[in-house]
Amino acid sequence: MFQFLKILWYFIGFFVILIIMIQNPKAEGAGLSNQIIVSDSDIKKKLLQLTWFLIILFLILTSILAQSSVLY
C-alpha cells in the first residue's frame, strides 16, 4: 500500500508540473502550443480546477506518506 501511494504521489506531482506549464504563457519552450490549449475561457476554468484538485491531493498524499514513514 505504501509503495502504491508513493508511485501515485510521483505521478500526481508530475501532472501538477505539466498542467502548470500548460497554463503558463511562457511555456513556449516546452513545445506546447499555448494558444490552442487554453484559448477558451471554459477550458481555462477547468484547468484551474484540475490544478487545485491535484495540488490538494498531492498535499494530502504528502502528509499521509510522511505519517506512514514515521510509523514504519
From TrEMBL:
It is found in: Membrane. The chain crosses the membrane at residues 7-27, 47-66. Its main location: membrane. GO terms for molecular function: protein-transporting ATPase activity. GO terms for cellular component: membrane. Keywords: Chloroplast, Membrane, Plastid, Protein transport, Translocation, Transmembrane, Transmembrane helix, Transport. Pfam families: SecG. GO terms for biological process: protein secretion. It is a multi-pass membrane protein. Belongs to the SecG family. Involved in protein export. Participates in an early event of protein translocation across the chloroplast thylakoid membrane. This is Probable protein-export membrane protein SecG.
